[in-house]
Amino acid sequence: MIYGGCGVYKAILIDVDGVIKQGKTLIPRVDKAIGIMRERSVRFMLVTNNSTKTPQVLSGELNASGLVIKEKEIMTSSQVLMSLLKQSAKLHSKAVSGVYVVGESGLIEELRSNGYTLTSDVTWGVVAVGLDRGFTYTKLATATRSIMLGASYICTNTDRTYPTEDGLMPGAGSIAASITAATGRRPLIVGKPSKTFFKQALRRLGGDLSVSDVLIVGDRPETDIKMANLVGCDSVLVLSGVTKNAAKLRGLYKPTYVFSDLYEAVEKLLSTPVG
Ligand SMILES: [Mg+2]
Question: Is residue 15 among the annotated active site residues?
């Protein structure tokens, strides 16, 4: 039997903001979509560039909204940043001498619970940057002076904005852009669309998967779809988030499929044998 596009995917990486939820509100039918994946034993992981919440907190919020997602079914850019510090001998030794965080509890907890010492002063160790809704001139100055002293500059993601119920708000990319403007240095980026992020997700889904087994579903061409294009796997652009009109898509990043939402993608690609 031939499956159209489709029954061939063993695992799906699913973006969160704009695909699973918008602000605090679940996007309609995501529970059914997750249900189909569980029923068909298709492995999945929610993958988010949002560094502000730990998987535990995000899982708790989704469960409270009626979508049952386990902590281990979520991967955040904060986790990938922490893994990179552990895996790279050079970054690890710098991080041990002090990490200055521009970020919120998701990033802070991840680093702290893995034994890294956080500092509130200028450091020559590591400057770790994520979305920080309490970002100030003082934080900008400390990050800038640290990087100028020789600290490594790592950023969870460079999304310029993120969607909320009130519309788009400035994202971690806007904060990183101000630090880059001050230092002239570009950060090492660990979130989508980096290959680092994809490799970490693949590792967590199990070592047996190859790139062609994996489908990436997201609402943002320059992160979700770009990552798929970079690593060479199929992708779905959904229109439930920041992209409303696929016909207006400019630019370089081409999804394999466009669907209205996650449910339609799962229903079309996983449920329907063809031929
Ligand atoms: Mg998104």
Answer: yes
